[in-house]
Amino acid sequence: MIEASLRLPRGAFTLDVSLTLPSLGVSALFGPSGCGKTTLLRCLAGLERAPAGRVVVDGQVWQDGAAFAPPHRRAVGVVFQEAALFEHLDVRRNVEFGWKRLAPHERRISLDDAIAWTGIEPLLERSTLALSGGERQRVAIARALAVSPSLLLMDEPLAALDAARKAEILPAIERLNTLSGITIVYVSHAISEVARLADHVVLMDAGRIAAAGPVGELLSRLDLPLPPGEDAGVVLQGEIGALDAPFHLARLDVPGAAFWTRDPGLPVGHRIRLRVLARDVSLSLASQRDSSIVNQVPATVEAIADDVHPSQVLVRVRAGASPLLARVTRRSAQALALAPGRQVWAMVKSVALLD
User: What is the DSSP-derived secondary structure letter of residue 237?
Assistant: First the structure.
C-alpha cells in the first residue's frame, strides 16, 4: 500500500494531495496536462521534496517530517516519457547497469525475468542508437525492473510514440501487472490507456484529487471532469461465458449482463476486461426483436448529464451490477421521458475486448 500526503507549490498551482493507493495492480494518475500528475510522481520517486510531506510504501517510510530518503535509497524504478538510455552501452549493459549495483540479497527480480517480461531478448546485443521508439521504451522498462523495485513509476511512457509503437508497448505493461507483483503507478492523460491498464484511478485537477476509485465505477461517473465526446465509456470486468463456434462468436459475461462479440480465441472461464463506449449504446423502452443489434439488456436510468454538443446528453444506466453510458440526442431523451429510475433496454452495438 502507498500512503502519501504532500503539499508543494509548483508554478501555476500548488500540489495538495492526500491519497492511499493499493499494492496490487496498476494505479493511474489521470487528468489534463499541467494538473500535477508528474509532480506527484516525482515526489513519490524522491526527485522532488515536499516540505513536511509524508510517503510510506508497504510500511517503509520514505519521507516523514525531517526524514527524507533520496531516490537511490528508495526501492523504486522510474520510466519517463523519453527512454534516456545510456548510448555508450548496448541493450544488455543498459539493463544490467542498476542490477550490478544491487547486493545479491536485494536482487528479487532476476535479469532473465526483466528481459523476458518486456520481450527484449532479440535486442540484447544491439546498440541503443539502432532501436525504434517502442524498443527503447521496452528496454527502459526492463532496466527499471532490474533494480528490483517495490514500486514502478511510469510517467506517460507512450506519449511520444505512434499507434504502432504503442501497440508494441501495451502488452509488455500488461504482462508486468500480471507477472511481477510490483505496484505500478502510471501517469497518463490518455483515457484509452487508463481504460486498458488501470485497476484504480486517481483523477487530478489543478494539483488536487478530484476523485479516486476502481476504474469501472470512476470512468462511468457523470459528475466528474472526465473526457466527454468520443472517449466517454465504461470499463467492465468479466469472463468468457460461452462460445458459438459456428458463428465465431464469444459471450462476455459481466455482473448482471452479457455481450456477444467476435471470438477472441480465449477459453471459457478466461477473465477479461472490456470497454463499452457511449457512442455504441442506444436506448429503447422495449426490446427490439427485428434488429441486427444482438446485445440488448434491461437497465435502469441512474443519471443524465450534458454532453459536449448541446444536442446530445450522456445517460448512465445500470444493467444488473454493471454501469453503462449511452449517448443520445436531447430530443430522444425527451421523447423517451428518460429520468432516474426509468426502465429501459440498452442496445449495445459494439464492445472492445481489452485483454
Answer: E
